[in-house]
Amino acid sequence: MSERVRTPTILVVFGATGDLMARKIVPSIFHLYRKALLPERFRVVGFSRREWSDDDLRSHVRGIIADKYPDADPQSVETFLALFVYQRGTFDDEGAYEALRDGNAGVDAEWGVCAKKLFYLAVPPANYEIIVRSLASRGLPEECRDTTG
Q: Is 135 helix (H, G, I), strand (E, B) or coil?
C-alpha cells in the first residue's frame, strides 16, 4: 500500500445530512472501505445544522448502505459506521468551527499523529465563501508544525 493510502485522514463533510452525502459520498467511501483503500486511521466528520448526534448520523449512513449495498456484511457495516461522527453547526457559527478544530485536535492526540484534514463542501456554492473564511479564521486548514497533515 502506498504512503498516501496509509496517511491518517480526517474527512469533514459540510452538508452531511444532504442529498450529495446519500447519493455519492457515503457510497464512494464505503466502496473504498470494502476494497481496503482507506487509511487505517480514517474518520468522517459530518457537519450540518440538524440537531443530530453521532448515532443519528450513523443511522442515516446505515440506511444509505442498506439501500446501495444490500449485500454488505453486517459486521463490516458496523465497523464502517464507527468511522463517522457528527458536528452540529451552521455555516456562520464560529463556535461550531472551534468545536470542529478541537475535535480534530482530539483525534490527532488519540492517534498520536497530525492527520491529513480534507474538507468537502457538499453545499450550494453560495455557502462556500462563509465556510472557507470560517475554516481559515480558526486555522483549520493549516499544516501541522512538521508539515504533515
A: helix
